[in-house]
Amino acid sequence: MISQNDLSSKLAIDAKSMGELRQSAKAGAPEALKGAATQFEAMFINMMMKSMRDATPQDGMMDSQQSKMFTTMLDQQTSQNLAKKGIGLADVLIRQLSQTASAQALAIGGDAAAGAGAVDGLAGGANAGAAGAGGVGRLLDAAMLQRSINAAGGAAPLSGAALATGASAAGTAATAAAKAAQAPHVRNFQEKLGSHADEASRATGIPAKFMLGQAALESGWGKREIKGRDGSNSHNLFGIKAGPGWKGKVAEAVTTEFVNGKAQTRVEKFRAYDSYADSFKDYAKLITTNPRYEKVLASAGDASSFAQGLQRAGYATDPQYASKLTRIIKHSLVG
């Protein structure tokens, strides 16, 4: 087994070392990820160098097929050496494919409006490892294909589309790993309500993941939804209260509000819906039509800004609302 999968000191066309790296990936060796990401970065650098070479005249008196071949070989090895120092791409790929494996369970408090806690559990395991190994394999496939092309005579590197395909495959593998690492109740919640969140996203421009995170915080991952006096489900996932202008069904529930930083328990009226889809639709309508949430919509491109915007707009009185929501969006949900 090659130590740390460091191929930077080897020839760029060393297929034997690439084969050893693939075996390390199959065996689940943790250092295989770094080696594969570095090889993919070397391939990317080589593509850029080839593009620069093509942009300069190569028809001088000293130019020949032999000189071009040696120049190609030099570029390949230079790419390998530069990748050892890194330009950032390998680090991004490593973070994508390894972040879920190292994720720890996070305990977060519940939403005050729902009066309950929410726990998000991220546990790495065999499934996450298998998905991550799949991403390593895809990176190696792309790098080995590039090496085969180069060894065949210095042909043009992989096209931008092919490189994008390889990166996309790595991202897909990372997403699969993230889903496998999710706690069952988190994964089930996202799968159950994902389509409704997607529809609301199209109506508001807010990422579906952000709204799912808020629904999770407000409802305790669906475990503590607001119920009517008869025990019926209100389907109210966002803790939206029934004000004077609400003409629909109502469910009364005990909630906790923070007044001057102190928690107070009281009974409030909440809106009730016929389905979860209606809950997401009403939330989308509230966010897009109420002037107080204009800045929330404007900051919907960033999880932290979105959560802080909701708190500043007075969506909830819990002083920790923004930090709780941010943690859920960033560390629990996939998307």
From TrEMBL:
Q: Which Gene3D superfamilies does the entry link to?
A: 1.10.530.10, peptidoglycan hydrolase
Annotated function: Flagellum-specific muramidase which hydrolyzes the peptidoglycan layer to assemble the rod structure in the periplasmic space.
Identification of the protein by name: Peptidoglycan hydrolase FlgJ
GO terms in the biological process aspect are: bacterial-type flagellum assembly; bacterial-type flagellum-dependent cell motility; cell wall organization
Task: Say which family it is in.
Answer: In the C-terminal section; belongs to the glycosyl hydrolase 73 family.
Kindly indicate whether the keyword Hydrolase belongs to this entry. yes
Q: Which domain of life is it from?
A: Bacteria
A GO molecular function annotation here is:
amidase activity
The protein's location, in the record's own words, is: Periplasm
What are its GO cellular component terms? periplasmic space
